[in-house]
Amino acid sequence: MTQTNSRVIRVHPNDNVAIVVEQGGLAEGTIIEGGITTTMAIPQGHKVALVKMAEGDQVVRYGEVIGTTLVAIASGSHVNETNVQLPTAPALDELPLATREITAVEPLEGYTFEGFRNPDGSVGTKNVLGITTSVQCVAGTVDYVVQRIKHELLPRFSNVDDVVGLNHSYGCGVAINAPAAIVPIRTLKNIALNPNFGNEIMIIALGCEKLQPSTLLSDRPVRIYENTQAADPEANVLSLQDDSFQGFGEMVEGILAMAERHLERLNRRQRETCPASELVVGMQCGGSDAFSGVTANPAVGFATDLIVRAGGSVMFSEVTEVRDAIHLLTPRAIDEQVGRALIEQMAWYDDYLSQGQADRSANPSPGNKKGGLSNVVEKALGSVIKSGNSPIVDVIGPGERLRRKGLTFAATPASDFICGTLQLAAGMNLQVFTTGRGTPYGLAMVPVLKVSSNSTLGKRWHDIIDLDAGRIATGDASIEEVGWELFLLILDVASGRQQAAADRLGIHNDLVLFNPAPVT
Amino acid sequence: MTQTNSRVIRVHPNDNVAIVVEQGGLAEGTIIEGGITTTMAIPQGHKVALVKMAEGDQVVRYGEVIGTTLVAIASGSHVNETNVQLPTAPALDELPLATREITAVEPLEGYTFEGFRNPDGSVGTKNVLGITTSVQCVAGTVDYVVQRIKHELLPRFSNVDDVVGLNHSYGCGVAINAPAAIVPIRTLKNIALNPNFGNEIMIIALGCEKLQPSTLLSDRPVRIYENTQAADPEANVLSLQDDSFQGFGEMVEGILAMAERHLERLNRRQRETCPASELVVGMQCGGSDAFSGVTANPAVGFATDLIVRAGGSVMFSEVTEVRDAIHLLTPRAIDEQVGRALIEQMAWYDDYLSQGQADRSANPSPGNKKGGLSNVVEKALGSVIKSGNSPIVDVIGPGERLRRKGLTFAATPASDFICGTLQLAAGMNLQVFTTGRGTPYGLAMVPVLKVSSNSTLGKRWHDIIDLDAGRIATGDASIEEVGWELFLLILDVASGRQQAAADRLGIHNDLVLFNPAPVT
Asked: Which spans are transmembrane here (chains A, B) (predicted)?
């Protein structure tokens, strides 16, 4: 990164635009790099032209073309979505696959965290009773019972951190045999296996739903809890329509009794020292601005590389924010097969969007644009930096579980909550979330660390943001320094030594399933 | 209805199958109507053949063909989805439109309830502060604040029944310019206008989202509440990203202050005597069985006609459970235009399902089949009976508001929660929900009355079911008697004299939006 002076940032020597750093933006007539004078006021985070451009010229940021000018633009002028045309997306049929030479990196040794090791070998960062639901019909009942469990049972199980109802809007009233139904079904099945739930599976079902609990337990025995028999300590399914429950009161008592058995086992979990290679970190961004790609996301990318060097697992996601940078990613695939898998995920999503008469230009929000991001190309180039510099060792589809250590592309929509839900299903035990505009995002299942891309937000949302990467823009910290801070913070939070801001405040968002199939 | 004896029910004289009434079903060798002997055990709610049928014969129930036999079936045998073939759906291009003569019905006068009359003329059945959210990002914060409002503010406003956060999974990360995006957007806009919220509109926004609050308030002045200004009593939008909020604590204080102003106004609402013509009742069924079409739904249909005779409004919905009975509905349209509107909604859904490689056969659940419903035709014939015998005066699309009194077809998916959400948007002030298998459904926004189709469920779920229509099958009550009971119960619950079971127990389901457009 070439920091030209304290007022603007140019990321790459070939860039013909720079980003305004100064809080409050630049006034008309301000002199910046190379004696260029601004011809108009330009807000913070927005782009200023460093050269005179004719109509049709390429606008270059991150050393990549982010569009062509729709009109002539004077040096020192504001460059934004009104005068830059979105280029076509990179064609998917001629991309270089696995062409980048894989250079040996020094392993990072000696870093550990205190985690909960599970029977299946995975490691949790929290000790949570996750109550899976097979259908939306039971959500109101589960919400009611979770409150009762928290007040009546949880105080007796001091090693258990929380009880979470895994409610969702799937399970019935859906085309369960449509081809795309595989996505929500495997998502629910795999979320139940998230390492923070300690391999305890407890499902509340209705009875008549399309998504039968046996589907969610396809590789485990289904053991039904019935009210009339002595409670089976291994019971993993309770159906509200079971004949043995006479009314709501008995259902609730049944769920409480079943929860107690699971809490007893979870309470025996103890944190133990685990190598950093047991980290499974999901990287995400939401409410991005033009700083995201020069501060927070590069710092996250640096931390990604540290985790990979330590032998851990990192996912990056968000297909529509990767699509326009795909030509930078396919060369980083570890082999051609992984490269083709990347392309397949892009092609699936192109098709999905076009079926709904939408395309990738639907991605950026008004806030992204206010934050200086002119289009999805600029957003994508800034977004993929979260993936650092490591080779991409695997690609998984939405709702699938992670298969390999190292850096995986976990294909998900960019919607924060859907991406979070799918990364939970993939098995993350911690999430890092960067934001420029600010979102009070949180998940009850795993800690979420929020990193601000600019210090204006970092200071204003002092109690919501966990780490301020805006210090990189002001020159108060380097990308490497913030990357290391994040890595160490991840280890602290994964160990329970420190709480994520969202957990401290108690702000948690619900799961949102990705269901590309119709509802009925 | 021809009740042949206490063991089976035949609905229509032309039917060649009857439904087993007896709890526990019929054993092999049981003698029923006309000296027919069962050739095998047949479960309760399932169909028994009343005649010998050859392969390819028509199976008739409700006087309508529900399928053709796949094999020869002996008289006294079990008829179900394994030996009946689904017929093709009625073609949409040759349906009779508005052909049924409209007979004058005697107006029903003198029935009233105690409701909350609103400035816009609508009448509420509860007094609720509904907090609209423009985007899912604020849901965790709204959940947190709603708890604070309930504990800190609500006790001071004794006329206000509840505070509800209208959370959902829309607003950003979605293709907001896709043609189908109109559905979720108008749904959110119209839910805020539900009569139970007393025309008070309070929106919690983030700031950078695609669904801007101004869209939700397009016909009202948008007044942004800022923390630094004196609280505007008319303020109706608070954005968490507003510069004036220094951190989470100040956002929460801002929301509490805004809620207080709205609670002050809501607290001045008083119940007053209103004619039954102000009822706006949504009819729905979920977890249906073979009794639904002979007990609960006919009783609901009778109550529908009573409400219409009293000048009130009734909606029925659930396109996939109407599609196969559409030929019975288009003649009941009040004019050809309404008839064509019915057909348009069917055609839209046929297309929507086929885009997802699904069709109407995706509707029935395993529980429906266990309950004796062989296919979607039989389910639909039993479902549309909820609409009674009144003319259909209007058709609205998903998320639209009701325009006319009388009986309207409000097109929605059959998914219970999506249908409920869309009927809320249409403006219902009470919902009736029939069930045979049993679902503990509830909405916090309006009372939901649950009617059981069989007494086995009605007795077992004694505290969840509001009214047992199973007494119709056992001969202990007539359709007319249960219909009148339901009508009078609606008036009691709408008046706050009696609580719906779900409200008494505190079981409430979340909103689920219908979003046929892609996520990004």
From this structure: none
CA B323 to chain centre: 16
| Polymer length of chain A | 520
Q: A116-266 has which fold?
A: Rossmann fold (3.40.50)
Partner-chain contact B437 A208, CB within 8 Å: yes
Q: Cα B268 to chain center, whole Å? A: 30
> What pLDDT does B205 receive?
97
**Measured between CA atoms, how close is A439 to chain B, in angstroms?**
6
The Cα A41–Cα A47 span in angstroms is: 11
Q: Could you give the ipTM of this predicted complex?
A: 0.93
Burial class (CB in 10 A: 0-12, 13-18, 19+), B270: exposed
CATH number corresponding to A1-87: 2.30.130.110
Q: Where are the domains of chain A?
A: 1-87, 116-266, 280-505
Asked if CATH classification 1.25.40.10 holds for the domain at B8-85, the reply, yes or no, is: no
Q: What is the pLDDT of residues A134-193, one digit of tens each?
A: 999 999 999 999 999 999 999 999 999 999 999 999 999 999 989 999 999 999 999 999
Report the residue from B355, B363, B437 with minimal CB separation from A207.
B437
Half-sphere exposure of B429 (CA within 13 A, CB side): 30
Distance between B338 CA and the closest CA of chain A, angstroms: 23
Sequence letter at residue A349: Y
**CA dihedral (A299, A301, A302, A306) positive or negative:** positive
Residue A2: pLDDT over 70: no
- For residues B335 and B333, give the distance between their C-alpha atoms in angstroms, rounded to a whole number: 5
Q: Does A509 touch chain B (CB under 8 A)?
A: yes
Is residue A113 within 8 Å of residue A312, measured between CB atoms? Answer: no
Could you read off the pLDDT of A11-43 as tens digits, one per residue? 888 999 999 988 889 999 999 978 999 999 999
Contact in structure between B312 and B376 (CB atoms under 8 Å): no
State how far the Cα of B221 lies from the Cα of B205, in Å rounded to an integer. Answer: 16
Q: Per mean pLDDT, which range of A329-338, A483-492, B127-136, B170-179 is the poorest?
A: B170-179
B13 inside 8 A of chain A by CB: no
Q: Which tokens in the block code for residue A497?
A: 């030594």
Which two structure tokens, joined as six digits, stand for B196?
Answer: 């139970």
* B6 — pLDDT class (breaks 50, 70, 90): low
B114-266 CATH fold: Ribose 5-phosphate Isomerase B; Chain: A, (3.40.1400)
